[in-house]
């Protein structure tokens, strides 16, 4: 802190400071606001007053002291509840000075019931846990029956909420039986007892829908409906469950686990019960509609009966009509049977006439074929004779050129005995070389002993 006093400027010549009261109070207020941060203060409410401006004025006290408080309208309108005389509360406030009167006071920014902070944190933790498990998923929610055969209520027999629910059910649906499963709604171990009643109703199966309800109260009063055991019992119930706990602004874990949340117990009764007046009105409308439909059906049946009566004839007349009809069918059948035969004969005669017209003359074709056969035979004979003459001419020419005829005229053919080739030049005749000589009447193998080649131009 600044070591210089805020009143040093007001010091006189002798060193004594003289300040107005307002300046002193303002300085004290400034020092308080700087020295004390926002703090939570607990105590009991006393002398609570709501001014016409909307500001709250009250005191909080304990056994040893008290402190005046002010909560301005901008903060008060967002408070979750209005404190009452004797309530245990906690306020988040700034220590200030009310300068006109020089009174110390707390400037309140938020207010909650005592212990509500810890309870609310526990509420949020359990809500997050069950929500992560899928206990609040919309897919798990079941629709309420439109016309329940019986309605169950889980609450205390002394609760005002039970009277409100019963009164609403008696007014809206007096024809529906109501079964109460009594259980305390406040105190130690209440959650387990409420859960046991929910499980009992689910096991018995006596009702089609179940209401779990309680009147309004503080978060401590409603804490039984924020326990895990009750939430799981509601979620596992075989029939739909409606939660009607507290007032419209009160939310509990049971509200999230239930299939439907009602703002109040009375609202829960209205949700599960069809209004008898509307049911009777709908029944009258359906009865009138059914009566009109039945009347129209009877009129159509009467008209149909009249039409059938006009069509009704005596058996003798009916037999005569059927006999006449049978004769007509017989004539039509005979005509229908003769017509295809007649048509077929006509078509056959037409085809026969066309065939006769285009029928070929076989005798003429036979004579023509005979002539062609004779011509073919003569042509083949002449061609054969020509081929024979040609073959004879070629044979004669071949005979003239035959090597045998050459040998018969005194010639000889000399072949090398090793390779069988004809010897054409005298140079090929060497002593000791074996040769084969072909003559007109045979052949002989010879060996050359003395060779004197002589070249000549001919014989």
UniProtKB/TrEMBL annotation:
Q: Name one GO biological process term.
A: DNA catabolic process
Reaction equation(s) it catalyzes: Exonucleolytic cleavage in either 5'- to 3'- or 3'- to 5'-direction to yield nucleoside 5'-phosphates
The Exonuclease VII large subunit C-terminal domain sits at 135-445
Where in the cell? Cytoplasm
Keywords, ordered alphabetically:
Cytoplasm, Exonuclease, Hydrolase, Nuclease
Single Gene Ontology MF annotation: nucleic acid binding
Single GO cellular component annotation? exodeoxyribonuclease VII complex
* Enzyme Commission identifier(s): 3.1.11.6
Describe the location of the OB-fold nucleic acid binding domain by residue ranges: 20-111
Family classification: Belongs to the XseA family.
The protein's job, in short, is: Bidirectionally degrades single-stranded DNA into large acid-insoluble oligonucleotides, which are then degraded further into small acid-soluble oligonucleotides.
Matches recorded under HAMAP family: Exonuc_7_L
**Subunit note:** Heterooligomer composed of large and small subunits.
Can you name this protein? Exodeoxyribonuclease 7 large subunit
